[in-house]
Each structure stands twice: as structure tokens, then as C-alpha cells.
């Protein structure tokens, strides 16, 4: 069963071909970072135009790397929200045109659901090298190989989705069955990272830059209050206060500032995730979304999980930030249930999980 998935919800134009729900035959991501950099954030109008330029070459490259033709596909999947409407529209138009002309089903996927399913994809680095393959340097150009077993998918688990647009604590009970436990009341975590980086003139996107800088600083140099950590706030989050606190400090070593900001954010996220797991009596937790690429968050959650006897799932790094392989993975389970979309599928900017 082969699925082509398209993802254009934000500023990455992505396409992927997935076989049997877990084998990534190809995953192509064209980043628009260089076009948005000078503005310190995403300019929606620029994003739509760049998607239009990139979409066809990206789809062609995904098929080529997978060694497949359009006729080999069994379905076409696409992100239809949440995201920027103008960006979503480009992916939707391409997916609809393909589904219609190939006479194959169209599958609409929620971007956040896609992020959760990134946990069920295999890291490329874990896959055995094909005979004759000299190194991993050309990995992205090498098509299919058999994945190592990651133990399948079992429910329930609690997933913390942390991205540029969302901070959400979700209890996943089964495929397509979610209960939202908490969310941010203001800035998303990734947004706070990006805004702090913009204020400090560090560049865009800020998350990976602050992550690197923090490695050279003292995480306990500055004490920030963990936002809304009191139990009375439930599982909701708030990150605009700490963002403002960072921007009010002066005369501090920038590495210490980055490390202290990151440590407070990471501890707050992990505390709530672990508390939710214990409150709900669920022994498995997962991370998803662009900020799940954060080295401190990954490392500290792993350590806390070991200490507290919880199973921790982390998405492979290459599928943490926006990509289409995760959209294909979520779509596979919809395909199995024949949950197809009509050809008039519309983009929904604030689609909920
Ligand atoms: O999921 P994603 O690729 O796009 C959205 O759906 O928003 O997430 C992008 C966000 C950005 O805010 C970026 O700064 C953040 O993820 N991010 C990170 C790291 N890598 C990406 N934040 C912290 N540490 C990282 N290593
Ligand atoms: Zn995302």
C-alpha cells in the first residue's frame, strides 16, 4: 500500500511516499527559512507564493527518490489544517488534482495528528545499510529499506505537542480518539523561542539557535518562575510571561540567558506531562512537534521517564519538525478505515484535534 502525502501548512513545502504505514520510501522537505529570515518570522503571503513555486518539484522529487510513479500510488493524503490558509490551499489544490486525475482516494489529515504519528516512523539512522551503500552521507537519496521494529503502536499514551503554533497536552486513546487535557493560554513554546531569539537578534527560527547557545551556558544562572506550575492551573500553559521576562534583562551573558530560559521552559513542560501521566494512571508519554527536536527536552524527559518508571516515546529527529512522512503515517490509519475526504475538502486554519 503506497501513499503520497503533501504538507504545506506553514513554511515548509513537503511531500513523502510511505509504504504500508511505516516504511518511508522518501521524505522531501523544502524549507523557506531563507525567505522569512529577514523578517524574523513567517510572512504568510510570501509563504503561499513560495509553496506554489516548490510544490510540483517537491512532489516529483519525492516520487523519484521513492522509485515510484503516480500510477503506483493507492491514495493521496494532505494536511488541511491547522495552519495558514494560503499555505494550506496550495497543498490541497495539488492533492485534489492528483487524487482526481489518478482516480484514487483523497485523505485529509490534521497537522497536529500528523505530529503525533511521527512517533511511529523509523529513524533513517536505525535502518540497515543496503548492500553496496558506502555511507549515510547519501542517505536522503537512497530509497527503500526495511525498518527495525519499534514495537508497534499501543494505546493509551499522553502526548505533549510543542510546535511554533501549538502547545497541547493530549491523551490519545486509539487511532483518531483524542482528549485534550491542556493547552497554552497565550504563546506556543516554539513561538516563545522564536520571539526571544528575534529580540536577541539571533536569527530565525529561534528554537534550534537557542538550543545550541544554551549548551554553552549555565541553566541555573538566572532564576525564572516556572509559569502556571500550580496544580490549580490544571494542564494549561503560558509562555508569554517568561518571554517578556527574558527581554527585560540586560547585562547578562547571552549563553546563560538562553540556558536559563530553556531550562525553565523544559522543566515546566516535563512537570506537567509527568503529572498528567500519574493523574491519569497512564505509563506512556510521547513528544511531538518542532520543539520535540530540542536536545534538553529530549534528554531530560528520557531521564525523568527512567526515574519515574514511564515509557518515553520520542519522534526521530528528522521527523520532529514539519514533514510529510508523518502526515502519510496518520493517513495510513484513515485509509484502513476508509475515512476518505470529498474533493471539495476545505482548508481549516484553526482545525482542532
Ligand atoms: O512543528 P514545526 O516544524 O512547525 C509548526 O507546526 O509550527 O515547529 C516549528 C517550531 C519553531 O518555533 C522552531 O523554533 C521550533 O519548532 N524548534 C525548536 C527546535 N527546533 C525547532 N525549538 C527548540 N529547540 C529546537 N531544537
Ligand atoms: Zn508542525
Task: Describe it.
With 353 residues, this protein is of the alpha/beta class. The chain has two domains: 164 residues, ATPase, nucleotide binding domain (Nucleotidyltransferase, domain 5); 159 residues, ATPase, nucleotide binding domain (Nucleotidyltransferase, domain 5). The chain has ten helices and ten strands. The strands form two sheets. A five-stranded mixed β-sheet has the order 3-2-1-4-5, with helices on both faces. It has a five-stranded mixed β-sheet with strand order 8-7-6-9-10, sandwiched between helices. α2 runs parallel beside α3, α4 packs across α10 and α6 packs across α8. The chain is globular. The structure holds 5'-O-[(R)-(carboxyoxy)(hydroxy)phosphoryl]adenosine and zinc ion.
H/E element string? EEEHHEHEHEEEHHHHEHEH
- Which superfamily, in CATH terms, is the homologous superfamily of the largest domain? ATPase, nucleotide binding domain
Share of helix, binned: 25-40%
The tally of strands reads 10
Report, as a whole number of angstroms, the end-to-end distance.
26 Å
What is the CATH class name of the largest domain? Alpha Beta
Any low-confidence stretches, pLDDT <50, length ≥5? 129-151
CATH fold call of the largest domain: Nucleotidyltransferase, domain 5
Mean pLDDT comes to: 92
Backbone shape = globular
Quickly count the helices. Answer: 10
Q: What is the percentage of strand-forming residues?
A: 15-25%
Largest sheet: 5 strands, mixed
| Sequence of strands across the biggest β-sheet | 3-2-1-4-5
Amino acid at each position: 500500500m503506497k501513499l503520497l502525502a503533501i504538507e504545506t501548512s506553514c513554511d515548509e513545502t513537503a511531500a513523502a511516499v510511505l509504504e504500508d504505514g511505516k516504511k518511508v520510501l522518501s521524505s522531501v522537505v523544502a524549507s523557506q527559512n531563507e525567505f522569512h529570515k529577514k523578517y524574523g518570522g513567517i510572512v504568510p503571503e510570501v509563504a503561499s507564493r513560495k509553496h506554489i513555486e516548490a510544490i510540483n518539484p517537491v512532489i516529483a522529487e519525492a516520487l523519484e527518490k521513492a522509485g515510484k510513479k503516480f500510477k503506483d500510488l493507492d491514495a493521496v493524503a494532505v494536511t488541511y489544517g491547522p495552519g495558514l490558509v494560503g499555505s494550506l490551499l496550495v497543498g490541497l489544490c495539488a492533492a485534489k488534482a492528483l487524487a482526481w486525475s489518478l482516480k484514487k482516494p483523497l485523505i485529509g489529515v490534521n497537522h497536529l495528528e500528523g505530529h503525533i504519528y511521527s512517533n511511529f516512523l523509523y529513524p533513517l539512522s536505525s535502518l540497515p545499510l543496503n548492500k553496496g551503500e558506502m555511507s549515510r552521507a547519501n542517505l536522503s537519496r537512497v530509497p527503500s529499506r526495511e525498518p527495525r521494529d519499534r514495537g508497534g503502536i499501543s494505546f493509551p499514551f499522553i502526548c505533549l505537542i510543542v510546535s511554533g503554533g501549538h502547545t497541547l497536552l493530549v491523551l490519545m486513546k486509539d487511532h483518531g480518539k483524542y482528549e485534550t487535557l491542556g493547552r497554552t493560554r497565550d504563546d506556543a513554546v516554539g513561538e516563545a523561542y522564536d520571539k526571544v531569539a528575534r529580540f536577541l537578534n539571533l536569527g530565525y527560527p529561534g528554537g534550534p539557535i537557542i538550543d545550541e547557545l544554551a549548551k554553552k551556558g549555565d541553566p541555573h544562572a538566572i532564576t525564572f518562575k516556572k509559569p502556571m506550575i500550580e496544580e490549580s492551573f490544571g494542564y494549561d500553559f503560558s509562555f508569554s510571561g517568561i518571554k517578556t521576562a527574558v527581554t527585560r534583562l540586560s547585562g547578562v551573558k547571552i549563553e546563560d540567558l538562553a540556558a536559563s530560559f530553556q531550562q525553565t521552559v523544559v522543566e515546566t513542560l516535563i512537570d506537567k506531562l509527568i503529572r498528567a501521566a500519574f493523574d491519569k494512571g497512564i505509563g506512556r508519554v510521547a513528544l511531538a512537534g518542532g520543539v520535540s527536536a530540542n536536545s534538553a527536552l529530549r534528554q531530560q524527559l528520557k531521564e525523568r521517564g527512567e526515574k519515574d518508571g514511564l515509557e518515553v516515546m520520542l519522534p526521530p529527529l528528522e521527523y520532529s519538525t514539519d514533514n510529510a512522512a508523518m502526515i502519510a503515517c496518520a493517513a495510513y490509519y484513515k485509509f484502513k478505515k476508509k475515512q476518505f475526504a470529498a474533493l471539495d475538502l476545505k482548508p481549516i486554519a484553526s482545525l482542532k484535534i
